[in-house]
Design a protein that fits this description.
Blueprint lengths: L7 H58 L9 H7 L9 E5 L4 E4 L8 E7 L2 E8 L8 H51 L14 H49 L7 H28 L8 E4 H11 L1 H6 L3 E6 L3 E4 L1 H18 L5 E9 L2 E9 L32 H11 L3 E6 L3 E10 L3
Helix pairs in contact: 1-3, 3-4, 4-5, 5-9, 6-8, 8-9
Amino acid sequence: MAGMRPGITLKLFLAILAASAAAAAAMAVATRLSFQSGFFGYLNQVEAQRLDALTATLAAEYRRHGDWGFVRDNYARLRELAAPAQPIQRLALLDEARRRVVGNPELPEDAAVRPVIVDDRIVGWIGQAPFRRLSSAADLSFQQEQLRAAWIIAGLALALAACVAIGLARAFLLPLKRLAEATHRLSAGAYDTRVEVRSGDELGRLAEDFNRLAQALERNEQLRRRFMADVSHELRTPLAIVKGELEAIEDGVRPLSRESLASLNHEVAALGKLVDDLYQLALADVGALAYRKEPVEITQLLQEAVDSLGERFNERRLSVETDLAPARAFADGDRLTQAFRNLLENSLRYTDAGGRVRIVARRHAGKIRIVVEDSDPGVPAQAMPHLFERFYRVDGSRSRANGGAGLGLAICRSIVEAHDGEINARSSPLGGLAVEIELPVAQ
């Protein structure tokens, strides 16, 4: 079809075929040159053996006649003495002084020359010019047959190369075609697309990377949808309460009093905190959350966070234990205070009344290790990896009923990672949850 570009399969096939054709042509030319060189060498070797036999014959005739007169300028006699298949025009008989007796008057320097010895005395020389070209019909026919066979072999090799090229093109490109089709489906939004991994080579690793990419995109899409659903739900709940309160006041069902205003203010504050948390996470995602870092005393920040929530801890009858060793970090004090308050807020909301909260800060191997742990209730092991996800809540006691939107720990992780630190969760020896933060020590 006019205007269509050749596909990669055709390109690869033509590339392999062209390389194979060049190799076959080179092989045919090399075979021809090798045959000619080898065949001429073979013929010269055979002629050399015949020349040795002619030397013995000439020595016997010389002994019988006493000189070269019997053959001088007598081509017919020399032909009789030579082998029947030996070309007489390539022979030359010389006397002991290397003067021509009979035969080729222009013997080349590379001619094969044998001495004619009679009674331990050199009486002459017999020489033969080497083969330069084939002259006999039999030799020419044999040469043509060999060359024809070489070209036939080259043609068969080229045909075999074409078949192999087709197979290789399909074998190599079939996985790429599957990847291309899967990529097209993935770009169209089918994030559940996967390709089968059939090898351990580069194509197999490419398929594995594609599957990991598709899995990450699918998970991100699920998180995005869940995030949007959670955000809409979290925003709808306080808005519905505020709307209901206002309608009740407007209809006269509920009087406009200090208590009703306090209730409205509480819901507005919860809504404002949710919006502020979402805004901070959005800034952290795009790297626009500002951090003004300087050397700060970690123990002081922890103590200030504990003191700011002291009244609320007392209301829930939670005992707070601190074991804080001096340690300095290069950090944004306000952001770290926010992270510490979120951790304490988490323990405050979800720890049973009358329980314990313990905060420990220690230097260890060039790091500052901060652990906030609380008492019952605990967190199931399968929920630990998800605690720092947005809007994630553990079923049961740690639920939306306790007032959290599920963003506090996510904000903590964002702040800690911005300080080149690590945050992890595990079961607490007190029976509840232990969150551990590691920050680099200020240099």
